[in-house]
Amino acid sequence: MRYPNSLSCLLPALGLSLLLLPGCYSRSDIKEEGGKAGTMTEAVVGDGPDASSAASETAATDQPLQRVNVLLEVSGSMEGFMPKTAADGGNTRFQQQVAQFLSEVNRMPAVKQKSFFLLKDKPYAESYAAMSTTVRAGIRQPAKSTELPAVLDTLMTRYYQPGTVNVLISDFIYSPKNTGAIPYIKTDITDALQRNGAQSDLAVSVYGFTSDFRGTYYPALVAGGKKANCCDTDIPYYYWVIGPTNAVRQFDAALLTAETARQAHFGVTYPRPAYSVLDKFENQGSWYYGDAGASKRAADSYRVVAISEASAQQPVEFVVGLDLQNLPAQYRELAYLQQNLQVQTVDTDAKLLGVTAATAQTRGSSGPQSRFTHFAKLRLTKVPPASRPLVLRLQNQRPAWVSQWTTKNDAVPAAKTFALSGLLDGLQASVPAQPTIFELPLTLQPAK
Known about the structure:
This protein is an alpha+beta fold. The protein has 2 domains: 15-270 and 398-436, no CATH class; 274-396 and 437-446, Immunoglobulin-like. It has helices at 51-60, 93-106, 128-137, 148-159, 185-193, 245-255, 334-340, 360-363, 401-404, 420-428; strands at residues 31-32, 67-73, 113-119, 123-126, 164-170, 202-211, 215-217, 227-230, 235-244, 262-266, 274-278, 286-289, 304-309, 316-323, 341-345, 351-357, 374-380, 388-395, 406-407, 417-418, 436-446. The radius of gyration is 25 Å and the shape is elongated.
């Protein structure tokens, strides 16, 4: 987010002052290119087993997504992503991907209100056509430096509305004028996101991409210098989708389902996924469905396992089918599930043997397993003395790619972003704590 050799409109020298003064952005800074005052139309989880149930009930009454605001940074550091059209007509992956994304936003049938803004010294209202042209044909006049905390402050103050998401597209290079502010990145981001008061439903989805880059590369630290005619390596850029949790969830599901993007979600809650014990799928040992009326209904929502006998010599194994199709790709990845899906129970030794994904065979099966995207296999060798709860819980952990894409020194161009982890620390501190993604209660009991 920098453009060296230009005077910042934020005069205070201290980095923390960025959040204490209006700076480049203020609560009346939404303007049109012609200088006229522009406005945005005013758009109209707990940590226990009941948390995901509440999320499911909430999802059923979510208000429809009403407005999408897209804000595209066009400062000097973004010029390499959007270079002027080459003689051979070539373009960057950023130009291809973002142009397609803008088109999809503009064509969203369920959302009538879409607004587009170019982030220069202030957010300027643009038409979809004009923004698309900027992305495709390149930035004609790169803007002066933009300050990330000030951008987020203005976004939260002016754009945060029920039923509204705000998509900020940027390289998210945090480069305060005073390098002494760098240790306070987390604090500055948290303060900016909470500038207009704590938002109990604030959520942010972060999507990371990389693109070829043709232009001048500006590191976050001025002392690191710059490199012209960059680059021989891909450079990261990001979407931050910011808004109330239900609006962010709806937008993610509508437009950002591609598994090619890196993802990290903060404060977004999801309905409890469908799940069931499967008695004729890789089962072992002496047990049966203990649900009332089990023999009279379809085997796609069983939650009780009645155990006749279990020992080290004769263990009980059963599979729980999980339908995770409505969760983001991050939470459907086998590596994530195998590391973060946990079992909690009492008075028995049930443990998770592993998680697998649906195959062509399971999807084509006539059995209930065809309805599920993933399968969790459990084993126990101890019969509980009476009915006991068992909970499958998916822990909410920051994905590994964030640390892999983070660097403390971006003087040399690479597929890393300066202080990315610190930025997301500040973001995470701004949203309600969410230790789990879902909790799926089951019951273990001795056979009768």
